[in-house]
């Protein structure tokens, strides 16, 4: 380990498996191509449907909900979020922040407001956050943007009834990096009450060896610095009051590597003293798991609402 608490190359938690190191380049590529594990349609169609449904949900949310679009959470051009409000006029609301996926190089808030309708209908304010994807932004910059977006909500709504983070895929990675933030250094401690990590990737080392890294150009050092799976094993225990529930979820129809990433991350969180649990969602893949958040009766929507209403 070096002086910044960053583990040396190759160090992992106890019992960690690294099956990806035995894979051919072709197999590794497949494991880290979520669309190739969708069983209901062809990969291209899965991607097309996902962005279509996200765009439609966003248009619907903007047409039906009271909202503040492109709210600047910082001075950068890309520091923007859309905030959608429930009918009740109050600042003492629970806030649900969503970080989209797209391997840190695609996606935007404009196609990611999936959960706005069911959550705002039940009294939750939803912020869909943009960050500067590659090649404009580096991963370190994206982590900083996500951290600042949370500080912005806390400062603007100090009476909030809890801040809940949800990220999908690369967005789950960004949300999980927040667990390593030193909030006291930032001068504001957010009222974090829950994290919902959906189909995420938490150890970036295998990703570096796939074609997805062509735009991001992560070095091994960048990957280790930005791998909560490796850093949380050597990080101090969560500060009292910050040990909010963390739900790590993955779809049944995702690759073994995505299952392993979620399962091992959940174990690492538990070892580190966080209140984490793991859930494999039946009948869904990397994309339908998020598409289903448009529905009030989907099990994940219900888990989110239950967590928020319990305020635990
Ligand atoms: N090229 C990828 C696309 C992808 O990984 C993705 C697409 C949309 C939202 C999230 C994604 N993955 C992780 O952030 C694939 O093969 O599925």
TrEMBL record:
Record keywords, A-Z? Cytoplasm, Hydrolase, Nucleus, Tryptophan catabolism
Keyword Nucleus attributed:
yes
Query: Taxonomically, which superkingdom?
Result: Eukaryota
Gene Ontology terms for molecular function: arylformamidase activity
GO annotations under biological process?
Answer: L-tryptophan catabolic process
Where is each BD-FAE-like domain found?
81-180
**Protein name stated in the entry:** Kynurenine formamidase isoform X1
Provide the gene name from the record: Afmid
């Amino acid at each position: 380990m070096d002086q910044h608490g960053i583990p040396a190359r190759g160090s992992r938690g106890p019992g960690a498996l690294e099956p990806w190191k035995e894979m051919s380049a072709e197999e590794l590529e497949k494991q880290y191509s979520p669309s190739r594990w969708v069983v209901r349609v062809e990969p291209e169609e899965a991607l097309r449907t996902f962005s279509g449904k996200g765009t439609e949900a966003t248009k619907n949310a903007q047409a039906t909900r009271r909202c503040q679009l492109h709210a600047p959470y910082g001075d950068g051009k890309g520091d923007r979020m859309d905030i959608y409000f429930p009918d009740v006029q109050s600042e003492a609301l629970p806030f649900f922040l969503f970080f989209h996926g797209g391997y840190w190089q695609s996606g935007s808030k404009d196609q990611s407001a999936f959960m706005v309708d069911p959550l705002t209908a039940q009294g939750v304010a939803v912020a869909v956050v943009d960050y500067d994807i590659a090649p404009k932004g580096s991963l370190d910059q994206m982590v900083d943007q996500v951290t600042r977006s949370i500080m912005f909500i806390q400062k603007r709504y100090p009476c909030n009834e809890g801040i809940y983070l949800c990220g999908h895929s690369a967005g789950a990675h960004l949300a999980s990096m927040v667990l390593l933030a030193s909030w006291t250094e930032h001068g504001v401690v957010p009222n974090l009450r829950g994290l919902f990590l959906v189909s995420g990737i938490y150890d970036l080392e295998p990703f570096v060896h796939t074609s997805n890294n062509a735009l991001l150009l992560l070095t091994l050092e960048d990957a280790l610095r930005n791998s909560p799976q490796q850093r949380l094993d050597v990080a101090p225990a969560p500060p009292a009051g910050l040990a909010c529930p963390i739900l790590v979820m993955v779809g049944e129809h995702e690759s073994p590597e995505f299952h392993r990433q979620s399962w091992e991350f959940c174990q690492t969180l538990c070892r580190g003293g966080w209140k984490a649990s793991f859930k494999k969602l039946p009948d869904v893949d990397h994309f339908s798991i998020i598409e289903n958040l448009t529905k009030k009766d989907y099990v994940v929507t219900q888990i989110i609402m239950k967590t928020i209403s319990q305020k635990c």
